[in-house]
Design a protein that fits this description.
By secondary structure, this protein is of the alpha/beta class. The chain is built from 17 helices and 21 strands. Strand 1 and strand 2 form a beta hairpin. Helix 10 packs across helix 16. The protein is globular and about 80 Å long.
Length: about 475
């Protein structure tokens, strides 16, 4: 993926291929593992092998040569019949090239040293930290600058950014999910020393074909790629390098009449700010996202707010049910089909600000007499799985806040995302509560019942990805 807009990068692979007697293609890439890179003298990677399979199907000969990125990108901008991969498709580049793809998905996000919290829960929080490490002139850095970020610590080396993060010189590092592990392993650092604390933006990588190239050529490449996906060849190649969530699926052929006939039941709960009732109306970040997906798919808006335990049971036992926002945990992984993520949050134990209680570990928390939890909530399930026997469960989460204030319970399990809103909803100033111990960072998704059609789930995921790609997701988050 081309992530730098200026500067020099090592770029490899020229495939000069003949598409007909009057035409020759120049195909260019860069060293960007695991997508396209030189290994033991051989240029390989997920995108490279996909491109090779396309050229094989189109009966195009290939010759590998080496170019700098500056020359390659300039050729793609100014010359006809030039193919450039892997290329991040952005709004700024949309009209500069023809696009064939997508060929993989990458997630930009803010990374922190594991356990260094508290973490940002939104972009506004990220703007307030001391320093964020970014890659100089990179697409991600440019995105932050366009959003008014002034706390960027720019570097020409992703490896140096990782070192700055681990040494405490910066608070966050903006990079991509697949790149983080690759960079860490290259410099001998355990990738688990850092963790994703705030997803920023999903981006699809494409094959970019220069504007002067005949549309018929572009169509041939896209058709070849689509056929590879239908046959399973694309997935088989990509799986050698990429996790499943980074491999794009072809859009399922589902008609509007088929979608309407599914009669999807959609449930949520009263849990601000993601989903909540205000004057009888459903609002919140997750509600807005789900409604935008429904609008784009021309599906009815039949979201119902129900107690969490009821919604969870329906999603477990009934077909064609979607439940949000649902925390994705290992013990839940095979219980549902997942679309997301919608947002991230950090779980923690909260107490009255006047409380003298001090705990530094989950083991200590097990010795506290009474911990308030929300019935069948992910946090409650997690603590039960970890041996907690001191939980006081309730079907109304707001009652936990009142019990904290009157001393009926000693701690309440909530998250940095929900706590301030729930407190205000209960008529309590959030400043009267304090975080005693954060203990887990999680992501929330839309959970579909197992008996929901795979084509429906794939369609929802692709539509959510489009929201993130075209900037709609960012606008909804900014509310």
């Amino acid at each position: 993926m081309r992530l730098k807009s200026t500067g020099v990068m090592f770029v490899f692979l020229l495939l000069s291929v003949t598409t007909g007697p009057a035409q020759e293609l120049t195909i260019i890439s860069e060293d960007n593992p695991p997508f396209n890179y030189l290994e033991n003298g051989v240029f390989t990677g997920s995108s490279t092998e996909v491109v090779r399979e396309i050229t094989r199907r189109l009966n195009l000969p290939a010759e590998i040569k080496v170019f700098t990125w500056a020359r390659a990108y300039q050729l793609a901008l100014t010359q006809p019949n030039v193919v450039l991969f892997s290329t991040a498709r952005t709004q700024e580049r949309e009209n500069l090239f023809h696009w064939v793809g997508p060929i993989y998905k990458v997630r930009f996000g803010f990374y922190a040293r594991r356990g260094s919290g508290p973490y940002p829960t939104c972009l506004a929080d990220a703007q307030k930290v001391r320093a964020i490490a970014t890659y100089k002139d990179d697409v991600r850095e440019q995105l932050l600058k366009s959003l008014g970020f002034t706390n960027l610590d720019s570097s020409k080396s992703p490896a140096s950014n990782l070192k700055k993060l681990l040494s405490g010189r910066v608070d966050l590092w903006l990079y991509s999910n697949l790149g983080v592990r690759s960079i860490a392993k290259r410099i001998g650092i355990d990738p688990d020393e850092v963790e994703l604390v705030l997803p920023f933006k999903d981006n699809d990588a494409y094959i970019a074909i220069s504007r002067g190239t005949p549309q018929a050529v572009v169509d041939q490449w896209q058709a070849a790629l689509d056929n590879m996906k239908r046959e399973g060849v694309f997935e088989k190649i990509s799986k050698q390098w990429l996790p499943d969530e980074s491999i794009p699926k072809i859009r399922p052929l589902v008609s509007k009449s088929e979608l309407a006939a599914l009669k999807l039941n959609i449930y949520t709960e009263n849990s601000p700010p993601a989903n909540y009732l205000e004057n009888g109306l459903l609002k919140g970040l997750s509600v807005d996202i789900v409604r935008e997906i429904l609008r784009r798919l021309d599906m009815p808006d039949n979201i119902q707010a129900v107690p969490w335990a009821r919604g969870y049971t329906l999603a477990l036992t009934q077909p064609n049910v979607a439940l949000f926002s649902t925390t994705r945990l290992p013990q839940r992984e095979k219980l549902f089909k997942w679309v997301g993520p919608l947002y991230s949050q950090t779980w923690g134990f909260y107490a009255s600000k006047d409380s003298a209680l001090n705990i530094t570990s989950l083991a200590q928390a097990k010795t506290v007499p009474r911990i308030g939890t929300y019935h069948k909530d992910a946090k409650e399930q997690y603590l039960l799985t970890n041996g907690f026997r001191n939980l006081v469960s309730t079907n109304k989460n707001l009652s936990n806040i009142r019990h904290i204030m009157d001393g009926t319970i000693d701690l309440w399990v909530s998250s940095d995302f929900n706590m301030p809103y729930l407190a205000r909803q209960a008529g309590i100033n959030p400043d009267r509560l304090k975080l005693v111990l954060p203990f887990k960072r999680v992501q929330n998704y839309i959970a579909f019942s197992i008996k929901s059609p795979e084509s429906l789930v794939t369609l929802w995921q692709q539509t959510l990805d489009e929201l993130k790609q075209d900037g709609t997701y960012d606008r909804l988050c900014a509310r």
